[in-house]
Amino acid sequence: MSICAVIFLVVFSLIVYAAVKYRKRPSDDDCEPPQIYGSNQVELAWTVIPILIVVVLFLASARVIHAVEDAKFPANAIEVTATGHQFWWEFEYPKYGFVTANELHVPVSPIGTSLPTHIMLLSADTDHSFWVPQLAGKTDLIPNRRNEMWVEPHEVGTYVGQCAQYCGTQHAKMLLTVVVQSQDDFDHWVQDQKSPAVVSAQVAEGRKVFETNACMSCHTIAGTPANGRFGPDLTHLMSRGTIAAGAATNTKENLRLWVQSPDAIKPGCLMPAMQLNDKDVDVLVDYLMSLH
Amino acid sequence: MADAQPILPPMVISAERENSRPLVQVLHSWMVTVDHKKLGLMYFMYGIVFLVIGGIEASIMRAQLAVANNHLVSPETFNRLFTMHGTTMIFFAAMPIVFGFANYLMPLMIGARDMAFPRLNAWSFWMSALGGLILYFSFIGGFGLYGAGSAPDVGWFAYAPLTAPAFSVGHSTDYWIIGILVSGFGSIGTALNVLTTIICMRCPGMTPKRMPLFAWMNGLMAFLVLVALGPLTAAQIMLLIDRYLGGHFFDTQAGGSAVIWMHFFWIFGHPEVYILVMPAFAIISEVIPVFSRKPIFGYSIMVAATLAIGFISLGVWAHHMFTIGMTSYANAFFVASTAAIAVPTGIKIFNWLGTMWGGKIRYTVAMMFCVGFLCQFLIAGLTGIMLSAAPFDWQLGNSYFVVAHFHYVILGGIVMAVFAGVYYWYPKVTGKLLNETLGKWHFWLFVIGFHLTFDFMHIPGLMGMPRRIYTYDASRGWEMWNVIVSIGVVFQALGILFWVINLVWTHYKGADAGPDPWDAWTLEWHTTSPPPEYNFAELPVIRSRRPLWDLKHPEDPDWKYE
After folding, report:
1. A196 vs chain B: nearest CA distance in angstroms?
2. CA distance B141 to B149
3. pLDDT tens, residue by residue, A51-80
4. Residue B492 and residue B408: Cα distance in Å, rounded?
5. Cβ under 8 Å to B: A residues 250-289
6. B342 and A50 in contact by Cβ < 8 A?
7. Quick one: A160 and A89 in the same domain?
8. Looking at the domain assignment, is residue A20 inside a domain?
9. Which tens digits make up the pLDDT trace of B424-474?
10. Mean pLDDT for the stretch of residues B532-536
11. Which of B319, B349, B350 is nearest to B336 (CA)?
12. Nearest to residue A93, comparing CAs of A81, A75, A102, A108?
């Protein structure tokens, strides 16, 4: 980029110089300027110098490409399989055996050692692209194709990104959050996610609504008969900060709105409005709120 | 050949006879014409109509994006808008406009009486026109004629599998496919015609080395159309087979490949950029010398650079696909080829600069647009080099940085050159000089608007704003930049308004131009303005690259130096 800035300054000032210096002045007579047809030396100079710059740029790029794409992973690297759906993200941790959605948790990689997270990228429907600008460049999720990428963040924090390949109506609200945690917090989170849902008797009514309506044909709640795979896994719904792939914060009001009328939050999303009565929605939301 | 070739004064056909006919006859004469000048004008006007339509679509999108969480248009409508904007601007605005220039001017400049195949020329135009109408018919016909028409919403690149029947129900995508297919036939016809004309119809004495650069560059454009439109047409047919005959080329649910579509599309899509920019280079290469009062600097190097760009441009397409997970070797190859194309392009910029150097530059509006072109195209090229580095592209591909980059190429480069060309050749086409004061308003408003919009559009891209999103949350911090970007649109629209006013005003009240208002050197200025139907009463015979210079300066003719 700095090379480009230098080229810009040099050439731009030449253009401005020529444009100002050689303008026709009122004092000029009408005769034509000297007719010059070209110069081989000059042509040679402005061919060879750009070629040299291009070679340098190419070598620098090739080195980075090799370092990123052909990186070797240590045995303790975290493995994640990310699957793009219209319009949300499914994250599976095959080593730990659980599935979550939209919020990817990875451990921080301590300075001096290497603890990358290796992400396998798949798509369930159309093309998507995994892009969290502060962590890594983007890589596409393409149906019938296995792509890979890796991140190795060195700072704890929450990083927001989003789908970067047009994937349909709600491409805009297919957000992606990466939570980078200390090793302890990450282990704690993994333990939490691995356990099945704890369903208390207080919300049995809501559970019944969930399991007697179409909810369960798309959503999984581990430890209950609900095992649909079309929508996000809800086993630990309340451990996530947002719903609808980052379109709204995960609050009681938003959950209620989302269940009653998804189009109010995310018009064009694939979750249908369930047409439940007020009482059913209340108990259902209570049930969802209990899924910690 | 004898000295001082007498080029006979051209035959004058009275304009009054044309104007005294009833309207129906005039319209009929345009419908059935095979005259390259009328067809060129029709191409141009057809392109301008779609330019305005595409511009309105862009303005609605900018209004939607000006503030965060805006509800001006629904996500469905926004997706249709950017699909139609891209498709319209590339296939139905830019291509007809550059074809219009080639059609009208190229035969005049090589001293021909018409294109090689005048009837094919008419057929090509009407096919292209039909394509645009089919695409826009989708607004009323996409879901059948129930008043629920819908434009295609798959993006102008129409990546599989979004175009598969499962994801794209109804017929809107079919209108997109067939519109492009049909206009593609027209484009291939025109390409054949332009190439044949250049090869076979040059006037006596016009060797390839004496051809104006305009003809060289439009010839290369035609060659690229011929090579690049084929894969696109094939892919559209395959997609139709997928959609209607149960094929699985791109149907990923049945084992098809989404990546194959990308290759098909971009092996067309990247040469397409050069198809559009070559005619722009052609215009610049004619206008700059005349207003600098010097011949083009390094003519033969310019020709070589043109051919080099044509060759390399066929091998860079996968730089649109750096993020699809190609191997490191494939990525490195496309980095190299993409960066390499900067060399001949740079040579051209330097040669135009060399042409201005030491001249006596007359700043007419046409020349102002040329200087604007040089500065803006320089920036466009440099952001292009940045994006050619795959790691840079992994970060900024499909972000607003890319949107800003290619609008810099298309609007800051191609459209600026088209404006220069209009101000330069309008007197030839109509016999009247465009108003310079209105032209300066047009220039400055447009340039200010362009820079407000596209300079500041780079920034949200760098901050991580992806393309093709209909809205964004205020917490992302992109809003301020988007406001500035949208404000620029107002200035650009005002600039265009001044241009249209200028065109209309000049038509009624413009100053008489005469055959050669700019004291130029190529053959089109050697006939009346507008030229008669057969261009030249007697075919000119030329001895150098600047036949009119030879005539005007018999004491110091060009041919002595060749």
Report:
1. 32
2. 5
3. 998 998 899 889 889 988 888 888 889 999
4. 14
5. 267-268
6. yes
7. yes
8. no
9. 999 999 999 999 999 999 999 999 999 999 999 999 999 999 999 999 999
10. 89
11. B319
12. A81
What is the pLDDT at residue A24? 67
Tell whether the model's pLDDT for residue A84 goes beyond 90: yes
pLDDT in tens, B397-411: 899 999 999 999 999
Expressed as residue numbers, the domain containing A264 is 201-289
Taking phi first (over 0 means left), then psi (-120 to 50 degrees means alpha), and beta for anything else, what does residue B144 get? left
**How many Å apart are CA B123 and CA B412, to the nearest integer?**
32
Band of residue A5 on the pLDDT scale cut at 50, 70, 90: low
Alpha-carbon Rg of chain B, whole angstroms?
Answer: 24
CATH code of residue A127: 2.60.40.420
Residues A213 and A142 in one domain: no
Q: Is domain B35-561 classified as CATH 3.40.50.300? A: no
Identify the sign of the CA torsion B49, B52, B57, B60.
negative
A88's enclosing H/E stretch is: strand A88-93
CB B92 within 8 A of CB B125: no
Contact B476, B462 (CB under 8 A): no
Contact B468 A161 (CB under 8 A): no
Phi, psi of B453 (to 5 degrees): -70, -55
Query: Token pair 């016809």 is at which residue?
Result: B189
Most B-contacting residue of A68, A69, A159, A176 (CB-CB within 10 A), to test interface: A69
Q: Can you tell me whether residue B85 is helix, strand or coil?
A: helix
Distance from CA of B303 to the nearest CA of A (A): 13
Q: Provide the b/e sequence for B212-222 (b: ≥16 CB within 10 Å).
A: bbbbbbbbbbb
Q: Are residues A97 and A177 in the same domain?
A: yes
pTM: 0.91
> B102: how many CB neighbours lie within 10 A of its CB?
30
**How far is residue A202 from each of residues A208, A220, A254, B82, B440, measured CA to CA in Å?**
12, 20, 22, 50, 76
DSSP secondary structure string for all residues of B44-82: HHHHHHHHHHHHHHHHHHHHHHSSTT--SS-HHHHHHHH
Tell me which chain A residues have a C-beta less than 8 angstroms from the C-beta of B378. Answer: 8, 11-12, 15
Q: Where are the domains of chain B?
A: 35-561
